[in-house]
Design goal:
Two copies of one chain form a homodimer.
Chain A lengths: L2 E7 L3 H12 L1 H8 L2 E8 L16 E2 L2 H5 L6 E4 L7 H10 L3 E4 L2 H17 L4 E2 L11 H7 L5 E7 L2 H13 L3 H10 L8 H4 L2 H15 L18 H9 L2 E12 L2 E12 L11 E8 L3 E8 L3 H17 L13 E3 L6 E8 L4 H11 L4 E6 L7 E8 L4 H11 L5 E10 L4
Parallel strand pairs in A: 1-2, 1-4, 2-3, 4-5, 5-6, 9-12, 9-16
Antiparallel strand pairs in A: 7-8, 7-10, 8-9, 10-11, 13-15, 13-16, 14-15
Chain lengths: ~425, ~425
């Protein structure tokens, strides 16, 4: 039987998942591709270290170009992560006419288009299904199965760490700091969780999804980001009471010739499918002009799910060798209006006329109100005052708050969170 | 630019969706496939009838073989539905070395394997994404993007009519008969709804999904079916109270070398993603041994969503011409155990000892109980008595009920509904 030889760069959790799947699903794979998959070289830091995968010790090397320049290797699988030296390795592999599969979101988000052109020039494939939402087949599905569609909307819960933290805060009433510690203890958050909780990870991923769906190169700097560090137990309580869950959403919306991207916490209606995406799970909600609304749900990380996505790309390369040039549509403008309803929570001194004055300032800024919740005083003589507005641009909200914050009976503008109405 | 010519058989709702998408997304399609799509022949009953699509009147013909035998047509799109004459037309098209795309679930469920072999023999493609779950890309995703996985579980809400009816009963408190009428009025149910409400439509679709996922030919007769005609408002009320929604599920479960298929109403936990699938929407929940749990959600019918799936197949054929033989795995046994928890509702005469006697009979049949709800009397001296059991084979439930039904204080065994625990 014909052999397909893989060279793997990096031997972390995804690589060991990939190697394990190839081992335990081997008979199914052979039946499917009618070829045998051989892992012939693996780049590691220390070739002598003992590892929990079933590979011959001779495959390990600490010399990257021994893998990349190996004439017998057909497909290079890059699982190092980070931009350098992954970028240099992938360039060298493509120039060597090797197909490349990668799970590297930072690299694809920043250098994807250049590497894609290099792959086309060399008549090989560059695939990166595993770079977004782990096991969920979303990138190839958008670019292949849903190719009949012009996409209007992509809204994802694509960071498992923050979704775990928010779920724990919502379902178990945990405080933010405690939920972060719990996520760290279970391995869902890093020792330094900032790339997750501040939205950087989700921004990389939505930029990749938007590039694939809209055929439009997105610069990561064009994506306004707000993480979950300011979400309080109190906001989560109000959200629940008003029929919502708070989720960290990454969104890319196209209207006419404008695209708007962002990463932000949002109120999601409890009966919307995105609301049931709990803990470390991910989901991507799409709207295409032919297919309508779709949602894809699954595990966004982990050794086997991410390995499944990497192996799916490898199988696709083996079964299908035609390479097509992707063109980029540059007539579309990237905007930042954030035209949505908003949840705003104030702490106010409980005097007659406070609500009226705030409502007036909202009115002057063309902000109309969908609901108001006024509550009993806190211990310190202040009371929470909660508004949900109708749709309005974020700049109107900011202009109104600029005035309201100088009003002496408003002691604190505690929260401003977008309400996602999926329009 | 190179042209790809389509011959369409049938001019119903899906065909007009397809033609409309090709028209309004034309520039995107050309960019993607780098060829121009031409609808060159369309089979209709009456070529002179006025239609709401933008096609030259010269493309219509009432003679099927004028389309199938046209030497210029590259791809035949079969949208007539039903088994005959679609079967004969597709055979002729494949023998003419034309690729075939179809949305015909009844035909693929009953003759899919024979037609697939004929396609392989003729080195052309037979694709049928639109035959299951309308716009949701599920078939190609299972067979391509998720090819790294051995599948363990497929559970779908894949009949929009019944899901619409159950949602209306749940959310608006409608009686079954009224909900059916409402579905008919809105076009979600046929004048004769039996194929939907009795589970036949879902059985066709789960047989196709199971065949694709397990590489195992499924005979439609191997699928036990129970529809929704016996679901009462009262069961829906108890389900809600106990934390569930009632859904019509089509399931295919593989354990070791056994596959179990069925179509049945089931209790689905309210916080499970399948519970938020409302009205005419469909969803397919999968578990693969690498990827873990996935769910795909979207519109399961309709002109544009189904047209999107048909066009996705057409684009895939144009971009990828390699044809591979699918082998069938025949070492797997199809079983019917239905090992699950069950919801059972009795009407009993409210006397001391009734509960104990029923519980004893359950015990004698190795049925252990997870919860019991006992309620106040109805007007007629009887009271409802509701049980949820732990996991047990259906035959034990039937054996117990056989005894219980002879017990004089049990006036009615009102309902037996499976509880879906997704194990």
């Amino acid at each position: 039987m014909e052999e397909v030889k893989l060279g793997i760069l990096g031997m972390g959790t995804v690589a060991s998942g990939l190697i394990n799947i190839i081992e335990f699903n081997n008979s199914k794979l052979i039946e499917n591709i009618n070829k045998s998959l051989i892992i012939s070289k693996v780049l590691v830091k220390n070739p002598d270290k003992k590892r929990n995968v079933n590979l011959d010790s001779g495959v390990y090397t600490s010399e990257a170009y021994e893998v990349i320049n190996d004439r017998d290797v057909h497909i290079i699988v890059e699982l190092i992560g980070g931009i350098h030296p992954a970028y240099e390795y992938i360039k060298a592999a493509l120039n060597n006419k090797k197909h490349v599969v990668t799970a590297n979101k930072a690299l694809i988000a920043t250098h994807g288009q250049e590497l894609e052109s290099l792959a086309v020039k060399n008549k090989v494939k560059l695939m990166y299904e595993a770079s977004v939402a782990g096991g969920i087949p979303i990138i190839n599905t958008i670019s292949e199965n849903l190719a009949a569609n012009d996409f209007e909307q992509i809204i994802g819960i694509i960071n498992g760490t923050t979704n775990y933290i928010l779920t724990q805060m919502t379902d178990c009433g945990l405080e933010y700091d405690y939920a972060v510690k719990e996520a760290q203890r279970l391995g869902f958050a890093e020792a330094d969780p900032s790339s997750d909780v501040e939205g950087d990870d989700a921004a990389y991923k939505i930029s990749i999804l938007a590039t694939v769906a809209f055929g439009q190169r997105i610069n990561i700097k064009d994506i306004p980001k707000e993480g979950i560090t300011k979400i309080s137990k109190e906001d989560i309580k109000y959200a629940k009471e008003l029929g919502y869950n708070i989720k960290l959403l990454a969104s890319a919306i196209k209207k006419n010739n404008e695209i708007e991207l962002s990463v932000h916490p949002a109120f999601v209606p409890q009966d919307h499918p995105l609301s049931t995406v709990k803990n470390e799970f991910n989901a991507v909600f799409l709207r295409g002009n032919a297919v309508g609304e779709l949602m894809f749900y699954g595990r966004g990380a982990g050794s086997l799910p991410t390995g499944s996505a990497v192996l799916g790309d490898i199988i696709s390369i083996i079964k299908n060798c035609k390479i097509e040039e992707q063109s980029s549509n540059n007539s579309i403008k990237i905007v930042n209006k954030a035209y949505k309803p908003y949840y705003i929570r104030f702490e106010v001194i409980d005097k007659p006329g406070v609500l009226g004055k705030i409502a007036n300032i909202f009115g002057e800024n063309n902000i109309s109100l969908a609901s108001v919740v006024q509550r009993q005083k806190n211990g310190n003589d202040t009371a929470p005052l909660v508004f949900i507005t109708h749709e309005v641009e974020r700049k109107n909200i900011d202009a109104a708050l600029e005035k309201i914050k100088n009003f002496k009976y408003v002691t604190n503008i505690a929260s401003i969170i977008m309400v996602e109405n999926f329009k």
